[in-house]
Structures are given as structure tokens and as C-alpha cells.
Amino acid sequence: MVIMSHPLDTTLGPMAPFVCQLLTELHGLMGEHAAPQVDHLCYRAASLPEYLELKVLLARHGVLLVEGMIGGRPIATYRLHQPVCANEVSVPCIELAAPKSGRSHQAGLEHIELVVPSLHALVVAHPALPFKTGNIEDGRNPDLGLMLPSGQVKFHLRPLSEVIDEELGTGAVVPVPPDYYDGL
User: Rounded to whole angstroms, how far apart are CA atoms 91 and 42?
Assistant: First the structure.
């Protein structure tokens, strides 16, 4: 097993081992398959001040692709200068999620997202797995979720960077309100 350390590991936690653990758990449930395309991983901040601090840090380690309001809170996505590498998997992007207002969140690595050819075929091939299918028919970016002991794996049809490019091109990104961080 080849797991490469990353400069952000000391702040965000060991990212490659997180990816490997989730892929190992997924393999145990779904069996052997080709090297998965892990599109990105997500770190959830516990507070808005932590989110703002991590935005500054991530800007030194990657290029901001977009920041927008998703699910009532800001989420920023960065293409890392140095991808997270674990075995044959290279993870090019990281998503930084602010906490949802009024909710308590634990800071840490939360999920990885994989690109697959068909969400419906995945559900049919693994009928015993408790997929979260609420977004499977989303017109812009359908997905499935699967909770595992070490975190969540989400499945998409396209890489996040493609979705971001489309959203930027069509004006679909909801900007963070200018006064969102006032009062911190």
C-alpha cells in the first residue's frame, strides 16, 4: 500500500488514509472494481471562524474554483496544487464546507465523492446497500450517498470541476451574501 503524506495533513487530518479507509470499506461491500475515480474529498469546518481560516490556508495549497451558498451555508472548492495520493488513486480537489447555521458540527474529513457511469445501475447492482437516493433525479448534479463506518461516500456522474464550470457559465452559483460573515 502506497500512501503519500500531504502538506495539509497536519491541519485537516491524514487525507490519504481517510480516502483509503473509505475505499477499503466500500470494497468490502461492493467487491472488486477498477481503480475508482475519486473526484474530491470534503472537510467540514466546525465554526465560521475556522472556515475562514481554512479558506486562507487552502488558497496557499490550491486554486479556488468556486465559493457559493449550498444548503444554506458557504462551500468553497479548491483544485489542489498537490493532489492527495493513495495507491493508484489521485484526488485533485477538496471541498471546504462551513457549518450549517444553528447546527453543531464536528470539524473533520467528512466524505469522498466518486464518479461512476450510472447511478441507477449502481443501485440495481447492490440492492442490499442503504443508498441515500434523494438526489438521484436532480437535473444538474444527481448523486447517491452511502454512509460507511469511517464517513460517507457519494457517487456522481461527472467530476465536480465540470459541474462548477457549468454553474459558473450559466450563472447558477449562489454567491455568499456580502454580510454573511459580519459579527464574527
Answer: 11
- CA separation for the pair 87, 118 (Å, rounded): 24
Residue 151, sorted as left (phi over 0), alpha (psi -120 to 50) or beta, turns out to be left
Instruction: For residue range 119-168, list pLDDT tens digits in order.
Output: 999 999 999 999 999 999 988 889 999 999 999 999 999 999 999 999 99
Write the CB contacts of 108 (distance below 8 Å, at least 6 apart in sequence): 13, 43, 44
Cα–Cα distance for residue pair 182/12, rounded to 1 Å:
25
Q: State whether the Cα torsion 153-35-16-70 is positive or negative.
A: negative
- Residue 34 — pLDDT band, cuts 50, 70, 90? low
Whole-angstrom distance, CA of residue 64 vs CA of residue 57: 11
